[in-house]
Specification:
This protein has 13 helices and eight strands. The protein is α/β, with parallel strands linked by helices. Strands 3-4-5-2-6-1-7-8 form an eight-stranded mixed beta sheet, with helices on both faces. The structure holds one RNA strand of 85 nucleotides.
RNA sequence: GCUGGAGUAGCGAAGUGGACAAACGCAACAGACUGUAAAUCUGUCGUUCGAAAGGACUCCGAAGGUUCGAAUCCUUCUCCCAGCA
């Protein structure tokens, strides 16, 4: 009974999905997306889900809140795309739950789960304990707390969990969202005992990066490609559906910019320029995150996806990890 | 050619005699982050020395002037926009 999973993380536009498919073919795997924006139905082009002509198959993984399924690309299953509509506020906790279920299912069918995506926290939720992450949100509480100023929230947290407050750094102490969550957790703990049962996996993580200049070129080309493939149409469709462009889903890079262009607030060049900047910024933040949170234990390996030798090295690494003979 | 408006840091934009190296927004750079993470939040952001406190230098289109003191007032020049010719 192996519980091995392969993780592929890294910056946007470095070819994580392509690599995942290649590995899946070679090692009899299935892919689980770890991307906070690809979970949204109808957001395909802008989030880089390459699913235009792919078939989606519903699958019963026994979850009361969501219906999930998989796309089949090149004979390989890709899970956790298209989980909710863009007006839904999806979160790490829900991701963790769904991903664990899917991983369990894949393992039970004697296949190798390959978790691939750029949302670092989603990946981390599968390999670190992150105990409080399972504590559910309290919408009523959030709503009432969101009216308060930061200083009030700080006071409130000091009241409910003094230690927690003083453990926060300056940045988090000024972050209303974090303060509210901290209050939520502390209140929850007062009336609930923690029972957190989480699978523990043996994992091997591959982090893909590119040299900065190469990455910028790739991002720029990809934006052009997305425009050709119909990004404008996708945005128009989402507008028509009446989705809130300030929602988490639509805060994905590119959507706001193209919307502003369609509404003639800015011209097309301006929109593309802003989109590019957003995307570069995103890639940089990803790098900061991966450097910090995936400690370089012997389970985590960094590769430049532009390096021709990378794939051979990755392959050897995975053969070793999965205890398969090198061929 | 005349009349009116305007020229402020990478961009946008406040400031209209002293608390101005100059609000604020964007961009940039650095960072934080255990249920919104492509989110949210923090710091830096004229140059320079310093770990910091702080110091030095340059600065609000250009040049000159008034004033103890000028981004702010005056003169000339220059560039831009609008109206009239």
């Amino acid at each position: 009974m192996d519980n091995k999973i392969i993780i592929i993380g890294g910056q946007t536009a470095t070819g994580k999905t392509d690599l995942a498919i290649k590995i899946a073919k070679e090692f009899n795997g299935e892919i689980i997306s770890a991307d906070s924006r690809q979970v949204y139905i109808g957001m395909d082009i802008g989030t880089g889900k390459d699913v235009k002509n792919l078939e989606f198959t519903m699958y019963n993984v026994q979850n009361k809140n969501f219906q999930i399924g998989y796309y089949t690309a090149d004979g390989i299953k890709i899970w956790l795309y298209d989980v909710v509509k863009p007006n839904y506020q999806f979160s790490v906790g829900e991701y963790q739950d769904l991903a664990n279920r899917v991983i369990g299912d894949i393992i039970s069918r004697d296949k190798i789960p390959i978790v691939a995506g750029g949302t670092g926290l989603y990946l981390r939720s599968l390999i670190d304990s992150l105990s409080d992450i399972t504590i559910p949100p309290d919408e009523k509480l959030r709503k009432s707390l969101s009216q308060l100023k930061v200083s009030k929230l700080q006071k409130q947290l000091q009241g409910t969990d003094r230690h927690k407050f003083f453990r926060l750094n300056n940045s988090d102490r000024n972050n209303p969202r974090r303060l509210i969550r901290a209050i939520e957790i502390s209140l929850w703990k007062k009336t609930n005992s923690k029972i957190i049962k989480k699978p523990v996996y043996d994992y091997c993580a591959i982090i893909l990066v590119n040299k900065e200049k190469t990455l910028e070129e790739k991002i720029s080309q990809r934006i052009q490609k997305r425009l050709r493939e119909g990004m404008e149409k996708e945005v128009r469709f989402l507008q028509k559906k009446g989705y809130d462009f300030n929602s988490p889903a639509l805060s994905a890079t590119g959507y706001q910019e193209i919307k502003d262009y369609l509404e003639r607030k800015i011209d097309k060049d301006e929109a593309i320029d802003r989109w590019l900047k957003q995307e570069f910024g995103y890639a940089k933040k990803q790098l900061v995150w991966f450097k910090k949170f995936l400690p370089s234990t012997k389970k985590i390996f960094w590769f430049d996806s532009q390096d021709h030798h990378s794939y051979t090295k990755i392959r050897n690494l995975l053969c070793h990890f999965l205890k398969k003979p090198l061929s």
